[in-house]
Design a protein that fits this description.
single chain, four-stranded antiparallel sheet, mainly beta
Amino acid sequence: MTSDAPTAPDEPGTGPGPHTGPGPGTTTDRGISRKTLLRAAVAAGAAVPLLATGSIALARDAARSATGESLPPTPFCDDGDDPTPDQMEGPYFKPNSPPRTNLVAPGTAGTRLTVSGYVFGRNCVPLPGVLLDFWQADNAGVYDMAGYAFRGHQFTDATGAFSLRTIVPGLYPGRTRHIHVKAQAPGDPVLTTQLYFPGEPRNSTDALFDPALLMNVRGAGGGKEGSFDFVLNVDGDPGPGPTDPPTDPPTDPPGGTWAAGRPYAAGDGVTYGGGSYRCLQAHTSMAGWEPPNVPALWHRES
């Protein structure tokens, strides 16, 4: 681990300035958003209704009979649920993080924190297989640059859900408490951003703080539980409709040595579709994450 905390912010001060007023990460004066109810429906295992257009119907519309509320429909996931803002990466990112959902080692100091949520497309469709790479400071406000403490990546499950076990990060000069994350849906650009904690005194003095990136945090026994739903600037695929015909003839995948369901280590080489690729982060491959689709995992060499 590094032995001393930085004496300046971990991102240059050229980023976006402070924002005022409630953002998508807060609940003040927002009412019930479609994404919030869709999140609850997904968590409960309910089937997500489809509109005639094939896109996801408003989950809050489906809840009208239960709540008695009259909620106006809107065509996109934009009722306070705009795409998650991006933020600067900072100097402490390291590639090749290990696949892990638990960043806490035995004996680790700090207040235990579980962060969970979902990743949605802008059309309110939950996104499975999204790569989420987290990194943060330890309890003393120090980033591990020698190893991979408090670093790890995971993929959202079939419902678009994720869960991370970690600690509340410590403070260091120039910044409020925050957790870094990169999010990438298959074949789409990487979103780099940060998650913040409500009620932190330094939120008002940190030039990078954005209230749209506040988690909902509550006490849970001796620790804390936080939640945050990412909205990526992509349209999610609701899946084939009941009348969609199968592909005819079936589409054969390009040839090569890459295959789904295999564990790959950083530095491994594969071929796919006539190109050669080098693995950047250890992971188990899956359909949809072919090398051309995930530059965060594979670097094309020829």
